[in-house]
Structures are given as structure tokens and as C-alpha cells.
Write a structure and sequence with these properties.
By secondary structure, this protein is α+β, with helices and mostly antiparallel strands. 64% of the residues lie in helices and 10% in strands.
């Protein structure tokens, strides 16, 4: 599954699909990490998965997730030996059903709020949103435990200790503090959450060590923060000077080019800085991890992330054009009266006929599936490959003394993560 990669490859110089040797360098004592998966292979996994999910009314999605994980795991080679994912689709399905049972009281609470006055409903929904945010932290931690306990390398299982409720509370309080400080506490939050996650990560009987801190990302983060705030405030100040408190319209925009230039410039600067910060956080934090004497060194380049975004935008535009042409070609005659009237009520839509509605629904589902496919092929697979190929492990031979330990964790964590859409590979 996932590229016919053998589970165990000898580390004496394996080369595949143009990859460089995966053996340990005898002079530097460093082991390389490689990812051999291709987008073409993932493309067909997704195509078959989406079709079967449609035919099974969504049930097959759990098998699709399992196939994707096995694809990523089996094509990720550390010192020439692949990771192994031992989870099953049935485990995901059972975990999701358990999570649905957990959410039933919350659905009842939402129904109760719908019968209350607007003010009570507003307070109730706000409280529910905060509770769901808190619960998402719990679910993410339990979901990570599920994944680690079903990940093996060289026959040795990963695992995770720690308390999910403690992590959820830590994440919730740090998030509140970050909002209250207008983002100034963000580097401290990142370091704290990374430390809790990875200090409780195990490979066999060996506990992971995290020696990173907020200082690893504070410099570039605060530079970006204050430059953005400075540009934005300057733009707002000049806009106020130019308008004198008048309503902003097209004429105002022409009379205050400097103000709008500063405002839009700050937004562009922030957008580009996101990729730099993501690469910095990933590189610096992962490079702070070690297992005994074995230590990670990771480098993810910001420009690679930017090119991923550019590719995604290009394919997104092409996809939108393609589907608009498809709708116009297949259903142009049917939709033309609705377009000309510029408004369509339910009766007008029903008059299209069930056949045309089904065709339109299938085109819509195909469009949404295409968006999900683009995200998977460009962002998910692309980022996984960047991290894998940018990773070097020093003193890898120390991992040969690790002994097997741990067992698979319960199912409910992955189910909650899936239900709250906070699951990750």
C-alpha cells in the first residue's frame, strides 16, 4: 500500500527514484530521512476514496484516512527503514461513533438554546463555543496519542504520556492570555505547548527531550509584529487625516493613496511573514528535540512554503474556471432563466427537475472534492515531504539501544479529534 515501499531496507546505501543514499554517513555519524511518496500515487488514492465515500454515503472516509496514513508512513524512511502505521479503519469508525455519543448532550443543549430569547441564546452559544474550543485541545492531544501508539519504527512503538485535560487547560489559558495581550504572548504559548507535547513523547522506553524555548522564535515574531502594527497604525492615521472623519468611498481612496498603500502593504507583509514564521517555528522547534544522544536537525525553507501557496492559487483558479465552464456546458440552458431573473426562490429551483438537481449536486460534490484534493496534494503532502527531506538525525546509532514498550491507546481520542476537525497526520 502506498508505493510498495519495503518495511525494512538495509542501511548500506539504498537509492530509489532519484533519492540520494539513505545510509549513515560514517564521517559525521548522521542519518538522513527521506520521503519516497509521489503525488500521482496519492492522487489515485484520493480519487478511489472519494468515489467510494460517495457510494457509501461517507462511511468509506475512515478507510480513506487509513490508506492515506499508511501511504505517508510507509514512504517515510529513517536511516533506510520505513515507518509503520498499525491503525485500522474500524478503529476510526468506532472512535467516531463514541465521539458522536459524547456530543449528543451538546446537541440537546443547542436545541434548548434555540427556544430561548436572543440574549440568553447569545450567552449560551458563546459559552458553548468556549467549551468546544477547550474540548478541541483535549481531542487534539488524545488524537495525537492515538497516532503515536499506532506508529512503529524498527518494530518499536511510539507512545505518549501526560494528561489530555491538563494540556487542554494549558492551551485554553495560553490562548486567552494571547488574545488579552493582542498576540504578544504567542511565542510563550508555542514553546509551552510544544514542550508539553514532546516532553511526553516516547519511542519505546526512551523519553523525548525538548530543550526549545520562546527565545527560538521571539526575535522574528516580534519584528514582524511591530512592523505590521506600525504600518497598519500609520495607514489608519494618514487615512484619518485625509478623510477628516468622512465616509470612505472610491473618491476617498483616490485622495489618500499613501494611507491605503500602508494598510494594504501591512496586510501583504503579514501574509508573507506567515510562511517565514511557519518555517521558523517548524525548523527551530523540531531541531530542539532529542532522544537520548540522538538529536534532530530540521530545516524547512519559507520560500518552499510560498511556492506551495502560489501553486495552490494557480490550480484553484484553473479548477474554478473548469467547473464554471462545465456547469455552463452541461446546465447552461437550464440555469439561464434563473440567472436572468437575478433571484431564485425555492419553487423556481424545484422546477429545474430532479434530474438536473442531481447533476448540479454531483458537480458541486466534485468541486468540493477537488478542493480537498488540492489541499492534500499541495499542502499536506508537500509539507510532509519538506519536513522529511529537511531532517537529519545525529548520533542515530544511540536509537539502536531502545527497547520496545507501550501499547495502543483507546479509540475515543481520535474520534473526538475527527468530530471537532482537529485531527492531523
Amino acid at each position: 500500500m502506498g508505493g510498495a515501499t519495503p518495511q525494512s531496507l538495509k542501511s548500506g546505501g539504498v537509492k530509489s527514484r532519484g533519492e540520494k543514499s539513505l545510509s549513515i554517513n560514517p564521517f559525521t555519524n548522521q542519518a538522513t530521512v527521506s520521503f519516497l511518496g509521489t503525488r500521482w500515487r496519492m492522487f489515485w488514492i484520493l480519487i478511489f476514496g472519494y468515489v467510494l465515500s460517495l457510494l457509501t454515503l461517507g462511511i468509506y472516509r475512515f478507510w480513506l484516512v487509513t490508506k492515506k496514513r499508511r501511504f505517508y508512513w510507509s514512504n517515510t524512511l529513517i536511516d533506510g527503514e520505513a515507518l509503520e502505521y498499525t491503525g485500522t479503519a474500524v478503529q476510526l469508525l468506532v472512535g467516531f461513533l463514541i465521539a458522536v455519543g459524547v456530543f449528543l448532550p451538546l446537541y440537546g443543549f443547542f436545541f434548548f438554546l434555540s427556544t430561548q430569547d436572543p440574549q440568553t441564546a447569545m450567552y449560551g452559544y458563546s459559552g458553548a463555543a468556549l467549551f468546544l474550543f477547550f474540548l478541541s485541545g483535549y481531542a487534539a492531544y488524545r488524537g495525537r496519542r492515538f497516532l503515536l501508539s499506532r506508529t512503529m519504527w524498527r518494530g518499536i512503538r511510539f507512545s505518549q504520556s501526560g494528561n489530555a485535560w491538563s494540556y487542554a487547560l494549558r492551551r485554553f489559558l495560553w490562548s486567552v492570555l494571547t488574545v488579552v495581550t493582542l498576540g504578544l504572548a504567542y511565542p510563550f504559548m508555542v514553546a509551552s505547548l510544544w514542550r508539553y507535547r514532546y516532553a511526553n513523547t516516547w519511542f519505546g522506553d526512551r523519553q523525548c527531550t525538548f530543550d526549545g524555548s520562546w527565545k527560538n522564535i521571539a526575535g522574528p515574531y516580534y519584528f514582524i509584529y511591530f512592523v505590521f502594527v506600525g504600518l497598519l497604525l500609520a495607514g489608519i492615521y494618514y487615512l484619518g487625516e485625509a478623510t477628516g472623519g468622512r465616509r470612505i468611498d472610491s473618491e476617498t481612496m483616490q485622495s489618500a493613496p499613501l494611507a491605503f498603500g500602508l494598510i494594504f502593504g501591512s496586510l501583504i507583509f503579514l501574509s508573507l511573514s506567515y510562511f517565514f514564521m511557519r518555517s521558523r517555528i517548524t525548523s527551530r522547534m523540531l531541531s530542539s528535540l532529542s532522544l537520548g544522544k540522538a538529536k534532530l536537525k530540521v530545516r524547512v525553507k519559507a520560500r518552499s512554503l510560498i511556492w506551495q501557496q502560489v501553486a495552490h492559487i494557480i490550480f484553484l483558479v484553473l479548477t474554478a474556471i473548469l467547473f464554471l465552464l462545465l456547469i455552463g456546458f452541461v446546465m447552461g440552458d437550464v440555469l439561464e432563466p434563473l440567472i436572468q431573473s437575478q433571484k431564485a426562490e425555492l419553487n423556481d429551483v424545484l422546477q429545474l427537475g430532479w434530474y438536473n438537481l442531481v447533476i448540479f449536486g454531483l458537480i458541486y460534490l466534485a468541486f468540493m472534492a477537488n478542493l480537498a484534493m488540492l489541499n492534500e496534494l499541495i499542502f499536506a503532502l508537500g509539507f510532509w515531504r519538506l519536513v522529511a527531506r529537511g531532517t537529519i538525525i545525529s548520533n542515530e546509532q544511540d536509537l539502536r539501544t531502545v527497547r520496545a514498550n507501550g501499547e495502543e491507546s483507546p479509540l475515543v481520542g481520535e474520534g473526538l479529534a475527527d468530530a471537532l476537525n482537529v485531527g492531523a497526520y
